Structure formats: structure tokens, C-alpha cells
């Protein structure tokens, strides 16, 4: 009881305004000392008085306290345990122990946008468009992707029990975690993606995708563009959709291969100190079309902006995510890592990225998958209706301008879709209909990717203009 009173006394003292005669520095030192004292007293009080205090370790309390501190910062700063630090480094190098899926947040759920070839998830029957409902007994509705990954990632060979949603039904799988290695740079023959090109057109166009900026991405990318140059390509489609970023140094190296002389990105810290990254390239080796979407983030954004603002190319797709702050990873103590936001970065022309994103030159939207646990009826007014209407609109059904209102236009469009796809046509967007909408959209994109097609059209326009 004496210790509780002492802690309360300290709290009361700290909440009382200091006399104006005290120097500000003295107040700060006094406050810091008192908080440190309180911290130690609370830790001791927990160990001595908590009903299972004998099971608490200093390590547990320390890690919990550190996690709590970092929870007060932005979404990108965190205190990582040794195990989390190891996973973090692996993920930056495109190697991690998990199930092999790519994620995105859609509404209250984390959905799957890609299942990697040869992954444990693919072997378990997980599909694009599925979403996480429960992981090892924990309901993950409303979780951030970071919080979800803390549950899904783990040690190689261990099992994780996951409940996935598909439409309105769920299914359970036990998946054995494995080391997942993802190639970050991929060159694809352009006619494998777009058949209607003659040999002269094909020879002039290269396609390269970058899924993240990991340790070896810069070297891999340089190899890919050298191959494209040797083959005589004059135009490059650079696909950075769903690329959430990675190492700044790697993204700068990629930019220096394709962005002409001038700035690439400018970093500014809390003291106003500016660090510039530049290119010395005399001219861009290709005319470039960059593909991005709302999940293109961080380093991806300054690469895309550098291409756009240097007039090396155009951007096609959606406005990017808007993460314009940089984190530094600092080793601490016994294999801990502090990841802290320490700088904001700006584009080649000093335009702000954070919370704004990079605007494409040509806006072409591909809607998210329908993910949720609700059916939709005539005259509903719900956020989920907007997503249903976006998918229907994408597939060519007349819903007017997509909004949250399930009006007669939406009802009739759903009914027509149901009949067209062998379902009972009654206009209610039930779970079976939602699943079918996702399936049909996925197949449609595989056959006819509108963002990629726009890039091809822009390039063909230039080829035939010359």
C-alpha cells in the first residue's frame, strides 16, 4: 500500500504546474527523473503484488513497456524483439518464414491479393480473394497487416491454424510455415501478356516488374535492363503495383539506372537537415510507362515520381499509398531492434508524398476484391455496397456511379450477373454471388488487365506516330 501511495504522490506532483521561476531545463530533468522512478516502482510493484507475479520476468515487462511506448508513435515505428528482428531482416531481403501470400487491407479484413507459386498456402487451397478471419484462435477482424503478420509468421516447420473467409462461408486449414523466397525482379516477354503485337512492335517493348526493393533488387534490375537494351527495346513498362517499398539505397540504385540527371529524392530530418539523392545519367535509356496502384508505397512512390517529374515517362494506374516517411533500424541491447521514423522524403521536384501519394498521369482503376461478412439487399446503404458496385461496373454491368446505395440499378445489375453466371437470379448480393463476382473479376484481369493495356496503347501510339 505504501508503494501505491508513493506512486500516486509522484503522479500528483507531476500534474501540478511548476513555479514560473524554475528554468525549463530544470523542469525537464525533474520530470524525466520522476518518470524513471515511477517506471521502476511500477515494475517492482507488479512483481511483488500481481497474483502471478512470480511468473513475470524482467524481460517480459521490459518488452511490454517498450511495445507500449512505440504504440504511441506513428504506425511505422516499432520496437522489435530478437525474433521479430530476424523476421524483419528476412522480409526486407524477400525471404521470410510464413505461408506465402501477399496481403492488402479491405474494410475490416486483411485480404489476399496473391498466393505465391510453390507456397504452403497454395498447397492448402488458399485463393486470391480469401481473407483472414482467425489465426490460432485469435479473431483478427479489424487487425492491421502488421499485427496480423505477428501471428502468421513464425519458425520454419511450425504449424499455424487459420480460418479464412471466402464469400460468406469460412474454412479452416493447418499450414506448416516454410521459408518463402520471392524474386523481386521479373522480366516477361511482352507478347505473353498482350498477344496482339506484331514482331516489330514486340521488339521495341520490354516489361519488367519489381515486387519490392530488397538487398539484391538493384543488381537484378540492372541485369534486366541491360538485356532489354541488348534486345533493342526502346520502351519499358515498369510494373510496381503492390510494391510496398524496401531499402532506400536499392530504390535509389534502380532510379539511377533509368532516371536522367537531377534529383531522385530529398530526405529531411527533424532538424531540417536535407540529404539529396541524385542521378548522373545523361539521358533515360527508355521511354517508360510506370504501373502503380493504391498499394504502391514508400520507396516505390519516389521512384515513380522521379520518372514522372524528369519526363522520362508517364504513370498509369491509381494514386499511390502516400507513405512519405523513412524509418531507420537501430540495433539495441541483446538483439533487439528499434525501427523509428526519423525523416520525411519529398519527390525530385520537392513535392510532398506523405498522406498524399503520387497522382498518375492516366487514372485506370482496378477494384479491390469483395471482402466481408454481410449480404446486401435492395435499399441498403452500406460501405460494402460501393465495393460490389465497383466490381460490377468493372465487369461491364450498369450501376451508374458506384456508391453505397443498393438501388434498383444495382439490384438489376446483380440479377443480370447472377443469370449470366448460372446463379439463381433474384437481385440479392448473397455470399455465393460475392464469391462469383471475385472469381469472374480475377479471370477478367488475367485475360485483360486494363492498366497494362493502357500502357501498351500509349506505347503503340508513340511507335506508330514516328
Walkthrough of the structure:
- The chain has 466 residues and is an alpha+beta fold.
- It has 4 domains: 2-56, no CATH class; 95-181, PDZ domain (Pdz3 Domain, Roll), CATH 2.30.42; 185-365, Alpha-Beta Complex (2-enoyl-CoA Hydratase, Chain A, domain 1), CATH 3.90.226; 383-447, Orthogonal Bundle (Muramoyl-pentapeptide Carboxypeptidase, domain 1), CATH 1.10.101.
- It contains 14 helices and 19 strands.
- The protein has helices spanning 2-15, 24-49, 58-71, 82-92, 120-123, 145-152, 199-204, 217-230, 248-258, 299-309, 383-394, 408-420, 431-447, 450-465; strands at 78-80, 95-98, 101-106, 109-115, 131-135, 138-139, 159-166, 169-176, 178-181, 185-188, 205-210, 235-239, 262-269, 274-279, 287-292, 313-317, 325-332, 336-346, 362-363.
- Strands 10-11-12-15-16-19 form a 6-stranded mixed sheet, with helices on both faces.
- Strand 13 (262-269) and strand 14 (274-279) form a beta hairpin.
- Helix 8 packs parallel to helix 9, helix 9 runs parallel beside helix 10 (299-309) and helix 11 (383-394) packs across helix 13 (431-447).
Amino acid at each position: 500500500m505504501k508503494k501505491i501511495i508513493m506512486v500516486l504522490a509522484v503522479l500528483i506532483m507531476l500534474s501540478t504546474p511548476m513555479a514560473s521561476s524554475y528554468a525549463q531545463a530544470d523542469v525537464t530533468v525533474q520530470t524525466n527523473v520522476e518518470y524513471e522512478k515511477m517506471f521502476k516502482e511500477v515494475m517492482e510493484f507488479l512483481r511483488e503484488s500481481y497474483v502471478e507475479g512470480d511468473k513475470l520476468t524482467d524481460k517480459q515487462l521490459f518488452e511490454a513497456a517498450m511495445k507500449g511506448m512505440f504504440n504511441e508513435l506513428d504506425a511505422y515505428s516499432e520496437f522489435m524483439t530478437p525474433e521479430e528482428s530476424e523476421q524483419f531482416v528476412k522480409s526486407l531481403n524477400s525471404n521470410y518464414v510464413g505461408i506465402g501470400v501477399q496481403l492488402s487491407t479491405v474494410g475490416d479484413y486483411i485480404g489476399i491479393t496473391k498466393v505465391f507459386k510453390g507456397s504452403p498456402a497454395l498447397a492448402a487451397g488458399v485463393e486470391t480473394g480469401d481473407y483472414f478471419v482467425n489465426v490460432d484462435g485469435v479473431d483478427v477482424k479489424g487487425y492491421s497487416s502488421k499485427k496480423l503478420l505477428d501471428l502468421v509468421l513464425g519458425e520454419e516447420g511450425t504449424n499455424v491454424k487459420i480460418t479464412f473467409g471466402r464469400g460468406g462461408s469460412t474454412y479452416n486449414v493447418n499450414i506448416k510455415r516454410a521459408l518463402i523466397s520471392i524474386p523481386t525482379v521479373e522480366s516477361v516477354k511482352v507478347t505473353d501478356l498482350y498477344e496482339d503485337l506484331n514482331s516489330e512492335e514486340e521488339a521495341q517493348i520490354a516489361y519488367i516488374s519489381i515486387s519490392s526493393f530488397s538487398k539484391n533488387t538493384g543488381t537484378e534490375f540492372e541485369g534486366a535492363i541491360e538485356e532489354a537494351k541488348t534486345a533493342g527495346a526502346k520502351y519499358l513498362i515498369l510494373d510496381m503495383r503492390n510494391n510496398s517499398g524496401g531499402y532506400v539505397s536499392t530504390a535509389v540504385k534502380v532510379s539511377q539506372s533509368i532516371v536522367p540527371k537531377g534529383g531522385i529524392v530529398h530526405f529531411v530530418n527533424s532538424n531540417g537537415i536535407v540529404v539529396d539523392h541524385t542521378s548522373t545519367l545523361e539521358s533515360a535509356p527508355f521511354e517508360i510507362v510506370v504501373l502503380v496502384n493504391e498499394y504502391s508505397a514508400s520507396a516505390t512512390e519516389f521512384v515513380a515520381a522521379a520518372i514522372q517529374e524528369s519526363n522520362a515517362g508517364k504513370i498509369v494506374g491509381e494514386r499511390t499509398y502516400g507513405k512519405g516517411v523513412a524509418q531507420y533500424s537501430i540495433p539495441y541491447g541483446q538483439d533487439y531492434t528499434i525501427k523509428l521514423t526519423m525523416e520525411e522524403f519529398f519527390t525530385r521536384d520537392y513535392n510532398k508524398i506523405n498522406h498524399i501519394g503520387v497522382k498518375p498521369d492516366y487514372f485506370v482503376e482496378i477494384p479491390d476484391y469483395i471482402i466481408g461478412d454481410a449480404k446486401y439487399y435492395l435499399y441498403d446503404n452500406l460501405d460494402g455496397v460501393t465495393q460490389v458496385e465497383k466490381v460490377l461496373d468493372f465487369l461491364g454491368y450498369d450501376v451508374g456511379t458506384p456508391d453505397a446505395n443498393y438501388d434498383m440499378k444495382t439490384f438489376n445489375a446483380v440479377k443480370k450477373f447472377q443469370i449470366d453466371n448460372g446463379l439463381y437470379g433474384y437481385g440479392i448480393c448473397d455470399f455465393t454471388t460475392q464469391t462469383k463476382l471475385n472469381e469472374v473479376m480475377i479471370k477478367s484481369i488475367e485475360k485483360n488487365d486494363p492498366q497494362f493495356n493502357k500502357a501498351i496503347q500509349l506505347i503503340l501510339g508513340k511507335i506508330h506516330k514516328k
